[in-house]
Amino acid sequence: MRFVIFLILFSALLPAQKAQLPDAAGKDTVMRVCAQCHGVEIFATKGNTRDGWTEVVSQMIARGAQGSDDDFATIVDYLATNLPPHSEVKKINVNKAAAAELSAGLQISDKDAGAIVGYRKQNGDFKSMADLKKVPGVDAAKLDSAKDKIAF
Ligand code: HEC
Fold it and tell me: Does residue 87 form part of some domain?
């Protein structure tokens, strides 16, 4: 329930702070061609590869976007350069995450996740990987392999 409330609040906030496109060469062309049917905010927070953006632009041409070949080449360049794929690594904060989030996100056992939460309650926040490995019984090798996903 709390999560649902959060979602509602969050979506209510979104229109208030419309996403902006980064200032860079080609932005004016994007604004001219891509804001005819919808606002630029529907793609300003997206990220994609050059191939992915090329595909999006050809879908928009199929939907009726108007521009010259040069315009569309400029737009693909702009999008590929300024809106690259988002990093796919989702970080898990080991000082805040619940046990279920730790086990699923870091692919450690429920027992290790529970031990991490228990240790943290007693000893305060972890500051480093070395701290985290002090948790009795925890599988240090698994933590090492998840280290790119761990935030403190
Ligand atoms: C002729 C009208 C038109 C123009 C111009 C246009 N679009 Fe769209 N675009 C649409 C429509 C219609 C949708 C579908 C909206 C929906 O799915 O609710 C859409 C959706 C999108 C989406 C969301 C796709 C998804 O599934 O998440 C992106 C991204 C997008 N457009 C990017 C662009 C870009 C970049 C340009 C400039 C090259 C552009 N659009 C120009 C009509 C247009």
Answer: no
- The reply to whether ligand 1 has any atom less than 6 angstroms from the CB of 60 is yes
Q: Is residue 39 part of a domain?
A: yes
Q: What is the CATH number of the domain that holds 115?
A: 1.10.150.280
Q: Whose CA is nearest to atom 42 of ligand 1?
A: 37
pLDDT in tens, 127-141: 999 999 999 999 999
> Which pLDDT tens digit goes with each residue over 50-62?
999 999 999 999 9
* pLDDT, position 81: 94
Strand partners, 5: none
Number of folded domains in the chain? 2
Residues 21/47, Cβ–Cβ less than 8 Å: no
Mutation probe of ligand 1 site: the residue of 27, 40, 42, 75 with most atoms within 8 A of C-beta:
42
